[in-house]
Write a structure and sequence with these properties.
The chain is mainly α and 138 residues long. The chain has one domain. The chain has 2 helices and no strands. The longest helix is centred in the middle third of the chain and has 119 residues. The radius of gyration is 56 Å and the shape is rod-shaped. The N and C termini lie far apart (162 Å).
């Protein structure tokens, strides 16, 4: 019976050893499971942060686009106003030039008339006989 006892004790020792190995394996799996849960939690947090960053980036991009659209509209309006103002300035300058030309024509005619009146005066006619001076404006 001793042999059977020894065999049973040996078998029990083997079973204890196997149980200890399985307990270590289970502990390792539990540890791995905890690490996996922590990794999953980290990935979820990272995903949430990434989603928030993307949402903020999209919002900022949309704000920039809206700002650019507004700036473009303001620039177009400013250009239209500038063109209108430029056209008004050109028209004003053309009118001023026409008025200046008329004024100069009238002034030149008056000057010619005054000079001709001087030439036609009796004093000038008398002087021009002795000096051979000009007697008419051309």
């Amino acid at each position: 019976m001793e042999e059977k006892e020894t065999e049973l004790l040996s078998h029990i020792a083997n079973l204890k050893s196997q149980i200890n190995e399985q307990i270590e394996l289970i502990e390792g799996l539990n540890s791995s499971k905890i690490e996996n849960i922590e990794i999953i939690e980290g990935l979820r947090n990272s995903l949430a942060e990434t989603e928030l960053l993307l949402k903020n980036s999209i919002t900022e991009k949309d704000e920039v686009i809206e700002g650019l659209k507004n700036s473009l509209a303001e620039t177009e309006l400013s250009l239209k106003n500038s063109i209108t103002e430029k056209d008004e300035v050109i028209e004003g300058l053309e009118n001023s030039l026409a008025e200046t030309e008329k004024y100069l024509q009238v002034t030149v005619e008056k000057w010619k008339q005054t000079v001709n009146e001087i030439y036609n005066s009796s004093t000038w006619k008398l002087v021009s006989k002795f000096t051979k001076a000009q007697t008419k404006i051309e």
